[in-house]
Amino acid sequence: MTDSAFAFMPYPHVDVPRAVSGPLAGYTFAAKDLFDVAGYPTGGGNPHVLAMSGVKTLTAPTIQRLLDAGAELVGKAHTNEMAFSMSGKNAHYGTPRNGAAHDRIPGGSSSGSASAVSNHLCDFAMGSDTGGSVRTPASYCGLFGLRPSHGRVSLANTQALCESMDTAGYFAREAKVFGLVGECLLGEDPAPLPEVPQLVISDALFGLLPAASLDALAPAIAQINACCGPLEKLEGELPSLTDAYWAFRYIQGREAWQAQGELIEREGLALGPDVAARFAWSKAVTDEQYNDACALRERFAAHWKALLGDRVLVMPTVPDIAPLLSAKDEEIEETRRISHHLLAISVLCRTPQLSMPLTMKDGAPLGISLMGPVGSDLSLVKLAVKIAGFSAA
């Protein structure tokens, strides 16, 4: 499929069979080009991987679940190379258009999925989130976006990056569609939120933001507060976000190299400069660094579980709006580093987190997030739908 927003891989159209009726009948969707779909190749954002792929004969169970619910797949969406970037820029294929801010990057690595939805080319889209690859584009492109509890949504027949952190998430423009897709993908919660959930907010996390971002998010916080009752202040000392950032980096790096390193070296893959540098760094992660990081992850998750219990955390998705398309690589890399101090929290805790498009800054979207306990995914989606609807009441 070809499109003016450059959201989709230019594969020949395939009429993928779907149910004629169901809860998602009448809705269209895109799949990130990491998910296998029978009749399509899977390129993973790299031309050499695409050439090796061949046409797939099986469809990833998560995509099949949507088809069985009646949704129509309209194409496979661009991804950052090997899903190992958050900018949305791909050295081989270019940059999909941010439908909410044409002069800014869409974010990644689920760049094409977010672009397709934000440019009204489909109703929702599947992406993946290892370290922020759904939540970041959702914030940048003005979308609802969910990173589910780790393991909640199947990643079978999907190109891997980091086994212990990869998740299958999704985007939607409209709260209603976000809710419907959540009901289809997630099923019944193993650990639903209380009927009247308590929401808490951390001054320390919002303190990481520039003053202008804080000002921009104030109406969103007020909307959540008005909809859900008074927000409590999160009491207690937070574990070190700097330590968490490095634990995330070491785990992601080691597992990314384990997943893709042999292929990269055997095939001599030509990688974009940013992705090549990231894999080179990943190759050098030591056993000690990885094991220490895994131990810290368990302590970090236990600390947050003790702090939050069954409450929902209101938090920034990322510190600021999307960088401009003209931003230098150094600025985009620094944005990635700062953002991961927030994004790594739910990754290490294995908890669901979703971003909501409730506010703007300088004409561009800026998301705000809800993070719930492990297994509360659908409850969290329904809460987001309620909050979004409150603004229209």
UniProtKB/TrEMBL annotation:
Listed Pfam families: Amidase
Coiled coil stretches, renumbered: none
Superkingdom field: Bacteria
Amidase domain mapped to chain residues: 20-192
InterPro entries reported for this sequence: Amidase_CS, Amidase_dom, AS_sf
PANTHER family: AMIDASE 1 (PTHR46310)
Name of the protein this chain belongs to: Amidase
